[in-house]
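Q: I'm writing a short methods note and want an example of a predicted protein-small molecule complex. Could you take the sequence and the SMILES for zinc ion and return the bound structure as tokens? Please keep the output block clean; save any remarks for afterwards.
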Amino acid sequence: MTSPPTAELHLHIEGTIEPAAVIEMGARNGVGLPVESLEELEAKYAFTDLQSFLDLHYANLTVLRTEQDFFELATGYLDRARVANVRRAEIFFDPQTHLGNGVPIEAVMAGLTGALDESERTHGISTDLIMCFLRDRGAAAADEMLTAILPFRDRIIGVGLDSTEIGFPPELFADVYARAAAEDLHLVAHAGEEGGPETVIAALDVLHVGRVDHGIRSIEDPALVRRLVEDQVPLTVCPLSNVALRAVDTLADHPLPALLDAGVLVTVNSDDPPYFGGYVDANYAALHTGLGMDVEALERLALNSFDAAFIDGARRAAWQQEVRTHFAAHRG
Ligand SMILES: [Zn+2]
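A: Understood, no commentary inside the block.
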């Protein structure tokens, strides 16, 4: 079955860098890497938890130096997302990482927007950017980052919160989220991936997010599940990521089907695809063949992705009609 038309709402552009690009950009930019070969680098793609992934992720990102690097990074994602039938992508980026590596914000923005501004014409994919704060850099650094991005306010649609979850609860970021809200930015945050359901509740109550990234541990709190259903708060779930980082033991243990059955507005996404075993099409395929979810459930998930997207009603209706047509053809 071809993957359904979908909106991808949880995708870190830095997390789409392929191992071969790490080697190539490292050589091009004269950035020394702790590995000698592509094979040696690829052997490191095995993780025990979120932090073990982040350690490799941040080491790889030291190769991104120039506007051209960021242009190629975004173009590489678009090439692959087109194959995965992505119609709309709301893409996370982490400028604090690059500023910390000595890359000017202007180069990051020019490279990313140079690729994404043309994405509808070049790839048939509507795109926007969501800037994420790195929670492990703390609240003061987040506040400085928000100030630094405001000259580019019209190039982003929202802010998010990612990186190490344990030890950096949502409460730390209440003030910077209030500032972002005053700028009319959409608000999202990672929560309930490694942290418990209380982190999802804090993201809702303290940060006032409109969408929760991951949020899978909400399943542990029935009252929270009822609230997510009642308020139709979307969860951007990344099944293969959760297996790769041991947030769940196996795909069979994944709470996505139970959350969907309960009526939560669950969506399917790829997070950092080359690290976790596949793009969004591979995630849909895993739910179908690995978890046995039927086509009705997959159709619901694809429709949900457009309900959860920050788009206008006309585009939502058009894309959801594409989803229905796709599944009608599949049922034959
Ligand atoms: Zn993520």
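A: Remarks, as requested: The mean pLDDT is 96. The longest strand covers residues 126-134.
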